[in-house]
Amino acid sequence: MAMLVAGAAGFIGSHLTDRLLGAGLRVVGVDNLCRGTEANLAAALGDPRFQFLRLDLSEPHEIEKSLAPALDALGEPIDTVWHLAANSDIAAGVADPRVDLRDTFMTTFNLLAFMRVAGCRKMVFASTSAVYGERSDLLTEEIGPLLPISQYGAMKLASEAIVSAACEADLERACICRFPNVVGGRGTHGAIFDFLNKLARDREDLEVLGDGRQRKPYLHVSELVDAMVFIWLHAPEKRALYNIGPEDDGVEVSEIAQGVIDEVGCAARIRYTGRDRGWVGDVPRFAYGVEKLAKLGWRPRRSSAAAVRTSIAELAAERGLTCFKS
Ligand SMILES: NC(=O)c1ccc[n+]([C@@H]2O[C@H](COP(=O)([O-])OP(=O)(O)OC[C@H]3O[C@@H](n4cnc5c(N)ncnc54)[C@H](O)[C@@H]3O)[C@@H](O)[C@H]2O)c1
């Protein structure tokens, strides 16, 4: 069976690619490398069942020119498109809203148009808790109206809507997976990634955006990929909409900052920039409902705190930053 992973060179896409190859599947990975790297695909590129195409999914002519002929030459149909290509830099979308329109919405629109012509009938779509906006109630799949507070969340919600609409005529099935904060090795963004980069430049002072009291749920990337595959295999719905996340209320940013300092082994002073949120579109606290996924039969093994601890060690080791330890 052959799969297409859009955003394959990114953080989560590369782990998913490794997992699908490990299950004996053929994988065509697509990425324009605007944020992902070929280094993330080091293992996959050595596998004869993997093919990598560097192309921009926001450009229909690039899809026609490169993707269509590559899939024709594959000799077997694509069973499922796993769509993870998107803008993952929320601040970039605040500075220029066209970034999310192009990399999040148009990649979804163009992939769906391509799938219609190519006869690919199944999609797994990487969505986000950011579609819920800022609410104080438990975020479950049934609640609404959904009013995102970031361009990123808005373009993900709009993408969910067109994936759903495509199920009426073109798609046999779509799994819409709403991720929490995902952490782990090969990370390309997020609090742990930022803190490590800052400490690599300055071991005395660590600037933390906000007041440090933001508390969010975290899931290790290995568990996220498990859950995506589980939903793809077992969800019975034509439009399968699932939150994926830990079963606790998360970890505070201040604890993450201290954990990173401890791992690096320096004595940096933490300097909070103040306010209850770090940036435009930051949702400082939310309660994430994962009961629907538990009922389907998947539960995470690790808590948010354990996922963060493991990921700090993985990302620090990737950068060689643990060598600061005496
Ligand atoms: N990491 C998280 O915490 C998190 C949380 C919620 C949702 N998500 C979603 O999961 C998916 C993967 O996120 P990630 O953390 O791995 O981010 P990432 O930036 O590492 O991966 C996204 C990949 O998409 C590629 N891409 C972007 N625009 C493209 C385009 N126009 N054409 C081709 N490729 C393009 C990038 O180069 C990158 O490799 C994204 O859709 C993201 O929105 C991630």
Contiguous uncertain segments of 5+ residues = none
Could you tell me the radius of gyration in angstroms? 19 Å
Report how far the terminal alpha carbons are from each other.
Answer: 50 Å
Outline: globular
Side-by-side strand order of the widest sheet: 3-2-1-4-5-6-11
Biggest sheet layout: 7 strands, parallel
What is the assigned CATH homologous superfamily of the largest domain? NAD(P)-binding Rossmann-like Domain
**Count of DSSP H/I helices:** 11
- The fraction of residues in strands falls at 15-25%
Supply the CATH class of the largest domain.
Answer: Alpha Beta
Count all strands and give the number. Answer: 13
Could you please say which CATH topology of the largest domain applies here?
Answer: Rossmann fold
Can you list the ligands bound to this structure? nicotinamide-adenine-dinucleotide
Order of helices and strands: EHEHEHEHHEHEEHEEEHEEHEHH
Structure commentary:
This protein is of the alpha/beta class and 326 residues long. It has two domains: 2-182 and 218-243, Rossmann fold (3-Layer(aba) Sandwich); 186-217 and 249-286 and 303-324, UDP-galactose 4-epimerase, domain 1 (Alpha-Beta Complex), CATH 3.90.25. The chain has eleven helices and 13 strands. The chain has a seven-stranded parallel beta sheet, with helices on both faces. Strands 7-10 form a two-stranded parallel ribbon. The chain has a two-stranded parallel sheet with strand order 8-13. Strand 1, helix 1 (11-22) and strand 2 (26-31) form a beta-alpha-beta unit. Helix 7 (191-201) crosses helix 9 (253-264). The radius of gyration is 19 Å and the shape is globular. It binds nicotinamide-adenine-dinucleotide. Nicotinamide-adenine-dinucleotide (NAD) binds next to helix 1, helix 5, strand 5 and strand 7.
